Amino acid sequence: MTSSSTPSNPSQPSVEDAPTLHENKITARIKKLLIIIPILVLLLFAVIDSQTSRHIQNAFQSLLDWISTHLAAGIFVLIAVYILATVAFLPGSILTVGSGFVYGKAFGLGYGVVIASGVAFVGACGGAIISFLLGRYLLREWVGERLVERYPIFKALDEALKQQGFKIFLLLRLSPIIPFNAINYIGGITGVSLKDYSLALGGILPGTILFCFIGASAGNLSESQDRKNGPATIAAVVVGIILSLIAVYVMSTQAKKEFNKIVEQQEQDVTEHDGSILATHNNDPESV
């Protein structure tokens, strides 16, 4: 007599596989913590150092001094340092203005701004993309999904970012509503695609060029102090800085208005959606 046995479903984990799955989850969490903890420690050190001994600021200054005597190699070193600074939440404005000063002094205002802006832009983009990937790998599951479950507005914004992530992140980059380093990780926990997020990094160009222009102007002025046309150069630089500031301000203001419109529209959509669900529930005889 043969006994019949019920075939097991290969798609469902067996009881023997349960400990293995649990161990895999624990291992994955440990790996994430091994990445998160050093970043948090470095961030804490940066905050404390900025208020005390300022070792990081002094190190940046020493780096810029070295770059001024190694202009070609300094491009690659500056890009690498900029990437690390972005990932570690260190202020990149010092490097941006400093690179403008160094290359503006070496190559003049025009070429100096172009070179410094290119270096800062490449470094900032590299660091921003790495931060985005870290945020998606480390925080999306823990933070993003919980926010979507608990807050309907975040769910609506998350859906909006999936559909028009390029536009929203471009507006955020043009208008510094959220600090640059913070928005890199925040982007990782949202539904925006890596492609849209990366393309939207073009929005940092106006601010990058402005900071490099300010730094290059300072470097160019230091070279013009002993020249006969010094006053004319100073006047031209001051006017250029003022006009650049006005342009960036107008652009940022308009971007902020457009972003606020998107947020208000999403809030309205969430309210209408919740209202329709409530009306359907009240009109359902079985729910009474």
Overall description:
The protein is 82% helix and 0% strand. Residues 1-6 have low confidence and may be disordered. The protein starts with 16 loop residues before the first helix and ends in a 5-residue tail after the last helix. The protein has 288 residues and is mostly helical. The longest helix is centred in the C-terminal third of the chain and has 54 residues, at 230-283. The chain contains 11 helices and no strands. It has helices at 17-51, 55-69, 71-87, 93-107, 109-138, 140-150, 152-174, 180-189, 194-199, 205-224, 230-283.
Q: What keywords describe this structure?
A:
288 residues, 11 helices, mainly alpha, disordered N terminus, single chain
Number of helices: 11
Secondary structure class reads mainly alpha
**What is the 3D form?**
globular
Kindly, what is the distance between the CA atoms of the first and last residues, rounded to a whole number of angstroms? 57 Å
The overall strand count is: 0
Succession of helices and strands: HHHHHHHHHHH
Percentage beta strand = under 5%
Radius of gyration: 26 Å
Low-pLDDT runs:
1-6
Mean pLDDT: 74
What kind of sheet is the major sheet?
Answer: none
Q: Helical residue percent?
A: over 70%
